[in-house]
Amino acid sequence: MSPVSTDTINEREGMQRGWKLWSERLGPLLALVLVTIGFAVADQIWGQGRFIEIRNVRVILVFTAPVAVAALGMTLIIMTGGIDLSAGTSSMLCATILACTMNADFPVTVAVLAAVGTGGLCGLLNGLFIGVLRLPPFIVTLGSMTIFLGMAKHLANSSTVFVDRERIPEWLSKFTSTAPPHWSGWLPNIPSGVWFALAIAVAVAILLSLTVFGRHVLAVGSSEATARLCGVNVFTTKLVVYALAGVLFGIAGLYSFSLLRMANPGEGIGKELKFIAAVVIGGGSLSGGRGSVLGTLAGATIMGVISSGCDQLGVANATQDIMIGVIIISAVSIDQLRQRRRE
Amino acid sequence: MSFSANEREPLLVTHRITKSFGATHALRGVSLQAFGGETLAIIGENGAGKSTLMKILAGAHRPDSGHLQWNGKLFQPARPSDARRAGIAMIYQELNLAADLSVEDNVMLGRERSRFGIVRTIEQRASVRRALGLLGHADLNPQRRVGSLSIGVQQVVEIARALVSDARIMIFDEPTSSLSRSDVQHLFAMIKRLQERGLAILYISHFLEEIREIASRVVVLRDGQSVHEGTISEVSDEQIVSLMVGRSVGKLFPKIDHTIGESALSVDRLAGTKKPSNVSIELRRGEIFGLFGLIGAGRTETLRCLFGLDRIERGHVLLNGRFPAANPRARMAAGFGLVSEDRKSEGLAQKLSIADNLTLSAISRYSVAGLLKLKRRRLEVKKWMDRLSIKAIGPEQTIGELSGGNQQKVAIARVLHQDATVLLMDEPTRGIDVGTKAEIYRLMGELASEGKCILFVSSYLPELLAVCDTVGVMSRGQLREVRPAENWTEGEVLSVAIATEDTKQHVKEKV
Lengths: 343, 511
Description:
The complex is a heterodimer of chains A (343) and B (511). Chain A has 343 residues and is mainly alpha-helical. Chain A contains 13 helices and four strands.
């Protein structure tokens, strides 16, 4: 799709508008580049110069991938004007189910399907409560957040579920592996989980921009009344969005299990805020109708880069938290300023 | 001009007030006098300038020229609080109450009596009780939550609030539009009590019989001017109506020949949850059917019921030989298309592009094997933009950046794009410049000549009578009377629109 039509008014204005539109979309990406360069330079001066080594890049990518996958689900929800606070605990519920079914000697495919399916069910449940009872998403998912936490704790007997190394298939442990070799021939040895996350991103991007469903999501998010007027089934659209996002949260649980080889239900608490942060840094608007796959990917990666860069520089964990907070607020204020100027 | 009240000093005088917003002249010279102990009615059509006048009295707007006099002195309120302090209280159509607070907290809101920051509850309650007693509602418990009260009683709270603030003039804006018949009687009793205490009342309404019951003098507004001020018993209903209308239809309305065919839509005794209560319409191919009514008559609700957006309680809708299910999707598939009156928040998604807005209702048309053919859609959108001469940079421009007229054209284009055969158009020319209005009238004529039919809701009588083949008039939820457009006069339409069940017969005889 060419970004603008040029024959209705004049060509130059059209081109300028097209460029503006793109610069807006590329904003979060630009921020990512700046943050990366900043840390690389700082690391060369004050650190050991390991930040831009391929080893570290792999670590950043592997730790970013699950956040990105879940944040893509959150992007869908936020675009409809909703929110899912249960994303963190539901993804850990999925990880716990994965670990428990594996320990119970089920085949791995069954375990994975059970885990991801649980994610979908969690989302469906949220969507039903939001749609049928017409409750605000914030309230519904605030409640389901602790429900899912409690369910996971039940399964895990309120502790951590460990799975023996030999029970875990090779593909699942390699899914998020950062072990050497760092190069495979000419190409960097990027683990399958990162590729998978990219594939999901492409799929979500196509879903949003090239399908009827994607247009409906956008329409519901920008104006529910208009969507209803145009015959869009607002209820079903939301239901599918929450269920789909739930599946993605389930996949994020898969990543987290693969990374740690265990499932700890309590770890899900607070993760949802990270997912939301990725969307917001990427230009998503909590009032709905705005958000992009590219932005969300950039947002998730920015957070990964910051925490890795701070580790390399020996910056305390507390400082990292403050930095991410500052980034969130500045990302949103820059966006607001730009919006206001346009008006 | 009446001289009967001349021995007394008027409390409030407006002298040749004018006010424009951009190119629209909302007020072109309004003069009136309000006396203590008397109710002055202000009557006029929608858009005659009533609400602008009120906002000026309330200090929300400043007049461009002319002046206000309060108690014999020049009065220039700069902001609403100035007017309030002077003793001007407004009772708006939409009540301004905090539903979660008690009656007394609402009454005292903003003027709490306190000592060292502690609210003096007992002292407050006494004055709240006094105010409620004056209004004949001494039995109302000051500690009741306002949200739990009926609309009628909520209005009492609102009036009590004005009373506690020592208002000397109270302005009522269409106070009965959401009240039941008995609540209206209570309200009138209260107004009489206020009058006896020496307050001046300004009563804004378009119900003739209400005005006759409560007011002693009347001011008629038309096109932003006060065209008559006098004692109400000295003018007849017909005189008031002709004073309200009194303008000629220009050449704004292009006539396009169209022939009327067989029946396309037949609505039988349609009723929604509140409004409409009884609407039966026959619409034929190539017919433009105008629906007139005052605000609150139930025209918008009728369209929404037809389109499946509001719940239908009773009645049948037969469209193109089918009884479609009552949801927008099914109704659209059967041939309905709705152009919403609320362009900003319902009609169009302001953040989305022209292309998205225009195709949203029939987007699956461009989906091949699950993927949208955006190029094909783009060409189609441009075709529609050309046909309706929508001025924009291109199909990807955001709707919010377009002018009102162009936005409206996109909303209409969407309905045409989805191949609707029965167009429900709710105030399609509201807030649009004259040129675009004429374009829309022409388009409506063209569509009718193609065999589509249009249900055209409007508050602007001249356009209805000029553009439509048939005009029906609604009041209080019912379709009262349908005639070919040429058999109506503006005065007749208006008298049917302001008639209620009780007075309908009476007005008819006079006309």
